[in-house]
Amino acid sequence: MDYCTRPRLAARMALNDRQLDRAFRALTDSTRRWMIEVLLDHDATVLQLAQPLPQSLPTLLQHLGVLEKCGIIRTEKAGRERMCSIEPDALYAAERWLRTVMWARYGTRLGSLPEDYPRLRAMVRTR
Fold first, then answer.
1. Do residues 39 and 21 touch, judged by C-beta distance below 8 A?
2. Please, what sign has the CA dihedral across residues 39, 42, 46, 51?
3. pLDDT tens-digit profile of 52-101?
4. Residue 67 contacts by C-beta under 8 Å, 6 or more apart in sequence?
5. Per-residue buried b or exposed e for 80-115, using 16+ beta carbons within 10 Å of the residue's own CB
6. Global pTM?
7. 6 to each of 82, 84, 97, how far by Cα in Å?
8. Which of 40, 55, 69, 93 is spaced 20 to 30 A from 118 at the CA atom?
9. Would you put residue 2 in left (φ > 0), alpha (ψ -120 to 50) or beta?
10. Closest CA to 45 of 29, 57, 55
11. Which residues is 84 bridged to in the sheet?
12. Three-state secondary structure readout of the chain
């Protein structure tokens, strides 16, 4: 590796670290994980996501903002409604990190990949 590519590689790794940090931070909240599960099944409006939840609409909008900022979801205005859909790239980055770092390096301590992992992965990739 030459002298010029090292800074670019370091910058790209730092960017990836920031993206992963945001994605994992977004996944720490159960409400946001529930919203991701719903959006993996189908696109939904903000009001459809808000209906079954006990939180207020402003609180839900904050959660959506966190998910959108880290790139896990995308929202688009469609008439008077705001549609939410999954953007799997951030989830792929987290999945790749878990696969390459956690299971590849520490697989003997962690055991095998979860049984339903291929099914979950296929579900995300078909969207």
1. no
2. negative
3. 999 999 999 999 999 999 899 999 998 999 999 998 888 888 888 877 77
4. 26, 32, 35, 36, 73
5. eebebebbbebbebbbebbeeeebeeeeeeeeeeee
6. 0.69
7. 42, 38, 21
8. 69
9. beta
10. 57
11. 44, 75
12. CCCCHHHHHHHHHHHHHHHHHHHHHHCCCHHHHHHHHHHHHCCEEHHHHHCCCCCCHHHHHHHHHHHHHCCCEEEEEECCEEEEEECCHHHHHHHHHHHHHHHHHHHHHHCCCCCCHHHHHHHHHCC
Q: Which residue has the tokens 């966190």?
A: 66
- Kindly state the average pLDDT of the residues 17-44: 90
Tokens 């939180």 sit on residue: 55
Q: How many residues does the chain have?
A: 127
Joined together, the tokens standing for residue 2 give 């030459």
